[in-house]
Amino acid sequence: MRPFAFYAPSSLPEALTLLQQQGQGGRLLAGGTDLLVQMKERDLAPRYVVSLRNLPELRTISFDPSGGLTVGARVSMRAIELDPDIRAHYAALAEAAGVVGSIQVRNLATLGGNICNAAPSADTAPALIALAATAVIAGTDATRELPVEELFQGPGRTALQAGEILVAIKCAAPWPRSGSAYLRHTPRAELDIAVVGASAALRLDGETIADARIALGAVAPVPLRMPSVEAALKGQPATAATLAAAAEVAAGEVRPISDQRGSEKFRRTLSAVLTRRVLERALAAAQAGEA
Ligand SMILES: Cc1cc2nc3c(=O)[nH]c(=O)nc-3n(C[C@H](O)[C@H](O)[C@H](O)COP(=O)(O)OP(=O)(O)OC[C@H]3O[C@@H](n4cnc5c(N)ncnc54)[C@H](O)[C@@H]3O)c2cc1C
Predict the structure, then answer these.
(1) Per-residue pLDDT tens over the stretch 127-155
(2) Model pLDDT, residue 196
(3) Rounded CA gap, 115 and 92, in Å?
(4) All domains in the chain, ordered by first residue
(5) Which atom of ligand 1 is nearest to the CA of 73?
(6) Ligand 1 nearest-atom number relative to CA 30
């Protein structure tokens, strides 16, 4: 690892000013489970590193039944996985956080790091897209908000501008009779990354699917929302046949590559299978929800 300057600011304004003063060539450090590996193994050599460890505003989870959920960018996967409000109302996010790495990794790995590292296989990305989450991004002059699905621009590339910091992820208040879920396939049970990850969020009106958001990971250069699958669900009766037919649409909408983890054909087949299973779980959760 090559030498670098290290800074540990104690507030968000201080961190933003530091980034502005130092300019190009820096990296933010959250849990370090991606960054430090890349610095050690892939010859990533930042000129300076800014730790987010001492920024309390990035460490909080807040939930209000009418206002929704805000999760700070430096909240760990383990904290998300165990949070009772997230488990109850945003199950897809709790389930996605809960499959990342091992418990040791999840104690360090943060939500912001998972998103900003922008791996196509990042587990929380499809869940956040299905949940229609918004990214809160701070710059020196202003704070802006962006739908999470617009954040991803390619492997390792996000819409964050130089000098910006992802502060938090927001999700709207949960609807009655709604449910969400995340599932992934990995060749190994633990410490493996998704060959395909799938997330669904459904809202019911009576026995009709009133709204649906579906997103898949590891099937394209960016986590992919599935508008055709959503269209095949909206306004349809909430039956197993509807879910199965919509899931088949996923196989045609993904843009997977073949690599050592799975062929393009395997990923397409898996996309349909996981989409059906995740839809079934989301539907069961919505049906169990309050009317
Ligand atoms: C053994 C192992 C297993 C893993 N398993 C999985 C897995 O199953 N699923 C999965 O999705 N990932 C997995 N990962 C990858 C990694 O753990 C996650 O992506 C993790 O969430 C990254 O978070 P972090 O806090 O460690 O990020 P860091 O490594 O600190 O940062 C990652 C990148 O994001 C940037 N960044 C971090 N925070 C911010 C912010 N607030 N604003 C702007 N930029 C920011 C950093 O500059 C860096 O470029 C694994 C990693 C390891 C080492």
Answers:
(1) 999 999 999 999 999 999 999 999 999 99
(2) 93
(3) 15
(4) 5-51 (3.30.43.10), 56-171 (3.30.465.10), 194-288 (3.30.390.50)
(5) 41
(6) 30
